[in-house]
Amino acid sequence: MKNKTYEMIAKRAAMALAGSRIVNLGIGIPTLVADYLDDDAVCLHTENGLLGVTKVDADQIDPNLVNAGKLPVGEGIGSSFFHSADSFGMIRGGHVDVAVLGALQVDQCGRIANWAVPGQSILGVGGAMDLLAGAKSVIVTMTHTAKNGASKLVKECNYPLSGRRNADLIITDLAVFAVKEESLHLIELMPDVDLEHVQNKTEADFTVDLAGD
Q: For position 1, what pLDDT does the model report?
């Protein structure tokens, strides 16, 4: 899972998380965010029933402690365990402050498709729909383009939407976008990336809101 591109995206997402917050990390790139958090006030949540998730060293892995993606995790001081139904009750009840999700596509309104590719078998939708409905803020972490080079920031998703709610922040390996009034605003370029490159790799319409412009 780990590579420099994913780690860069995860590190930037961690920079957006600070203070006393309950944060759910989705499957894929979001799971790496735990490696870069340096604020002990951030409390990580996983929908299979653990609050107080931490990263874990290879020599301290407990096979009974895993996140929703079945990856090994650690337990922080004061962590708690509960039934997955209670965990989803936390999500649906609005008790998760931030959800960090991966995505297959994001449209130019900020809506997310992240659970199914037409014609391919899937394991299930997971908690994405619940998190989109219940989390107070949503951050998307994904590569800017698919393996075939197609933009993942599109005018309209051709994969099934995970919900009608928009993301608040989108972080890719090329840029960072804020979603304001159902439109994309480019607020940051990743290191060694210029605006023209982002424009060439982005199908969706967006407004340039870079500092200094």
A: 45
Give residue 19's region: left, alpha or beta (phi > 0; psi -120 to 50): left
Name the 3-class secondary structure at 164. coil
Q: Could you list the active site residues? A: 47
What gap in Å lies between CA 83 and CA 140, rounded to an integer? 26
**CA 94, 96, 100, 104 torsion-angle sign:** negative
Q: Given this model, what pLDDT does residue 34 score?
A: 92
DSSP classification of residue 151: B
Q: What angle do CA 60, 65, 67 make, to 5 degrees?
A: 120
Domain boundaries, the chain: 4-208
CATH architecture for the domain at 4-208: 3-Layer(aba) Sandwich (3.40)
pTM over 0.85: yes
Say if residues 119 and 86 touch (Cβ distance below 8 Å). Answer: no
Q: Please state which of the ranges 39-43, 44-48, 115-119, 147-151 shows the lowest mean pLDDT.
A: 115-119
Q: Which amino acid does the sequence have at 212? A: G
* pLDDT above 70 (res 202): yes
Question: Cβ(162)–Cβ(132) under 8 Å?
Answer: yes
